[in-house]
Design brief:
Immunoglobulin-like; elongated; 753 residues; 14-stranded mixed beta sheet; mainly beta; eight-stranded mixed beta sheet
Length: 753
């Protein structure tokens, strides 16, 4: 079919290109297919023209292969009235000269196919071959009694051979009785594969089987689509149409089709009509005639050939049958609580051991979603397979769609309603949505042959989403903890505030269990408070994890709608990232609207503080720096104010620590640094004199290292070497005078070494 459509498309494109308003002439046998004349017979083929207006005459010479063809006659085609033809035929050399005159003028448009001007009768010899029918010289026409050459010239071609032929089935069906009719071929050589498609009218005919009858031939793929599919009723689903209406529906042309791929391992060469495939038809309830249109091709190895002739068929039926349907489908119906989900089945009945089935369903996606699909256990146990499925929706419409294919169904007992697919349906919003279903059932009468039947009946479903009379507990972490300090003794101490609220419509009166989670550690607590709809209770959970601690202790205090839980337990937890979580109603004691919102968590890092020394200097007095040029790293000599101290650049607080301040390696001056939160600093200010001598200053934070553990000890010390060893001082006196007069100035240079 694809090959045929491609050829047709290329032909149409050629027509568009050559019909551009130019004067055009086309020779005999110009066609998208090869024009064929059987040996010893005759054929009449036109010379056609286009794009002429009031031409007085047309002149052309044609040549042909005289071993294959001869010209018997040239006559005017009656499409253009008033033409007179004067031919000069020479079959000995294979040419014909034609002059056409018309006193009324020859006027034809450029529309393809072009207008026939003359008809030439060719007779084929007994030889086989293909002859080009070419214009020997540039053909011309007369306009104003002046010769004008044609702009576009297309030669033709005529093949002398018996045409390869495929013939569609024909016959008559008796009242209520099936019968078998054949597809046959003729004049093919070494055909290793034959492909054909038949278009039939499903209003009158049903295809039940496709059988190869050619010896050694094998069907590699065959399919037939039965049933009436009126476009105007597709929105409702044909199965929903009343029986009396359905039984009298007329099919749209081309809606029913079948295709067959027939492999012939030994090759097929025939010169007489030969049957290759039998097709079993049976009548519907209607009396009438179905035209059978065929499209076909054949291969010799990898070489593709189109059939020269595709002969349609015709089957007359006297009715007496029934609508071609099989099986019953039922969509799910249910009531679902808002925020919850439920597993609902698609069911079938009376499939009569069908081999496979296709299901299609749709619903309002603002009300529900299908989150997953699986085979029902009954179908699984019967060996049914879920071959493929997909669910989707579009942004421009609130509709969800489901498609699913089931295979290997022949062992499934469908004498009564039988579940085959389980849909997990999630309720999105309150309301009601229809679940419309449709589909097809497939029988495989033999290997590689599949026959499709529409479902005999369907039952659409309705799903309602309601707000149930239930509670709904939900938790919130207030200002989630991001960092937890690990102390020098290995212990952890932190507080996380949690709010549990009832967003449902029923008061929680039963006791339920919550679970505080820290990493892999879980501590359960029983909540005995009643929580009315819209109410909440705040819980402050203080966790103390101490290495070597014995049994877990829990101290509970409360005030109004707040509760304080102080938990002390054992454990040694390493630094790193951990999860802090809260599980609510972990044993599902409370019947809730939504069980999916009962757990919350956050990520926290267990870490240490990080203390670094602080050092800054500010010049107080001495030689003005504006009069001093400093070389190297020296400072201006004089008095300086020094600020030193400690800063916590970590993410958790530090306890009080010790800072050592040392000059020239002497006995350190010890300072106590208070507790520092993240980003906080402590400073001490002193004054020092900077002269020629270089002094070494050292500041070390967390000097004892027993008071606090840090992430990085490598940044705890800052050492400075401070002196004024290379300055040259130039002192310029104040000078006053008049412009244009010389004044002596004394310049003093000191600190020269």
């Amino acid at each position: 079919m694809k090959r045929y459509l491609l050829s047709l498309l290329l032909f149409a494109l050629c027509m568009l290109v050559t019909a551009a308003g130019a004067a055009t002439i086309v020779g005999p046998g110009y066609d998208r297919h090869v024009v064929i004349v059987p040996p010893g017979s005759t054929g009449i083929f036109p010379v056609s023209v286009g794009g002429l207006e009031n031409a007085e005459a047309v002149y052309f010479n044609l040549t042909f292969d005289n071993t294959l063809l001869s010209v018997e006659n040239v006559s005017a085609n009656n499409t253009i009235p008033g033409s007179t033809v004067e031919p000069n035929i020479d079959n000995t050399t294979g040419w014909v000269q034609v002059a056409v005159t018309n006193t009324e003028g020859i006027t034809v448009n450029e529309t393809w196919p072009l207008t026939p001007l003359v008809d030439i009768t060719f007779r084929a010899t007994e030889n086989e071959g293909e002859s080009t029918v070419a214009f020997a010289e540039t053909p011309a026409y007369s306009l104003g009694f002046e010769p004008v050459d044609f702009d576009l010239i297309y030669e033709g071609s005529i093949a002398v051979r018996n045409p390869s032929t495929v013939q569609a089935p024909s016959g008559t069906l008796s009242y209520g009785q099936p019968d078998t009719f054949s597809v046959g071929v003729n004049n093919v050589t070494d055909a290793t594969e034959i492909w054909f498609e038949l278009m039939y009218d499903g209003s009158y005919l049903i295809v039940d089987d496709i059988v190869p009858v050619l010896s050694g031939a094998v069907i590699t793929d065959a399919y037939a689509m039965n049933g009436v599919h009126p476009y105007e009723l597709q929105e409702f689903g044909l199965e929903a149409v009343p029986e009396e209406v359905r039984q009298n529906l007329q099919q749209h042309p081309g809606s029913n089709y079948m295709w067959v791929e027939l492999e012939i391992p030994g090759g097929l060469t025939v010169t007489d009509y030969t049957e290759i495939v039998d097709i079993t038809f049976r009548p519907t309830n209607l009396t009438g005639t179905s035209e059978i249109i065929t499209y076909a091709s054949w291969d010799v190895g990898e070489e593709w050939h189109s059939f020269d002739l595709e002969i349609p068929g015709q089957i007359v039926t006297n009715g007496g049958g029934s609508y071609p349907s099989l099986g019953e489908f039922r969509a799910p119906s249910a009531t679902i609580d808002a925020g919850s989900q439920k597993v609902l089945p698609i069911m079938v009945r009376s499939l009569n051991n069908a081999d496979s089935a296709f299901f299609w369903a749709k619903w309002n996606s603002t009300i529900i979603n299908v989150t997953s699909l699986s085979l029902n256990a009954t179908a699984q146990n019967a060996g049914v397979t879920l071959d493929s499925w997909w669910s989707y929706s579009y942004t421009y419409e609130p509709t969800g769609y489901l498609h699913a294919y089931l295979g290997n169904m022949s062992s499934l007992n469908t004498a009564s309603w039988t579940p085959v697919l389980d849909l997990t349906v999630k309720a999105n919003a309150t309301g009601q949505t229809p679940v419309n279903i449709s589909g097809s059932v497939y029988m495989d009468p033999r290997e590689n042959v599949t026959i499709m039947y529409p479902a005999a009946s369907i039952e659409n479903g309705v799903i309602s989403v309601i707000v149930p009379e239930k509670a709904d507990l939900r938790g919130t972490l207030v200002d989630p903890v991001r960092y937890v300090k690990k102390y020098a003794d290995g212990s952890l101490h932190f507080t996380q505030t949690m709010v549990i609220e009832n967003i449902g419509v029923k008061t929680v009166t039963e006791a339920f269990e919550i679970q505080a989670e820290f990493g892999s550690r879980k501590e359960p607590f029983t909540i005995e408070d009643d929580i009315a709809p819209g109410a909440n209770i705040t819980y402050h959970m203080t966790m103390n994890i101490v290495p070597g601690y014995g049994e877990t202790d829990v101290v509970i205090t409360n005030q109004g709608y707040e509760r304080w839980y102080d938990v002390t337990t054992g454990g040694d937890i390493s630094v790193g990232d951990y999860t802090i979580g809260l599980g609510i109603d972990v044993n599902d004691t409370v019947d809730e609207i939504n069980e999916e919102n009962n757990h919350i968590e956050t990520q926290a890092e267990i870490t240490y503080p990080d203390l670094i020394p602080v050092w800054s200097m500010e010049f107080v007095s001495g030689i003005p720096s504006s009069n001093t040029t400093l070389l190297g790293t020296s400072l201006t000599p004089g008095t300086w104010e020094v600020t030193f101290g400690a800063k916590n650049i970590g993410n958790v607080s530090a306890v009080p620590t010790t800072l050592n301040y040392t000059v020239n390696g002497g006995v350190p001056t010890v300072y106590t640094v208070p507790a520092l939160g993240p980003g906080e600093s402590w400073n001490q200010t002193i004054t020092i004199n900077v002269g020629r001598a270089v002094n070494a200053y050292r500041v070390e934070v967390n000097a004892n290292r027993t008071e606090e553990v840090e992430t990085n000890y490598g940044n705890n010390v800052d050492e400075k070497s401070i002196g004024s060893v290379n300055p040259v001082t130039v002192v310029l006196p104040k000078v006053s005078g008049e412009a244009g007069k010389d004044i002596p100035v004394a310049i003093v240079i000191s600190n020269i070494s």
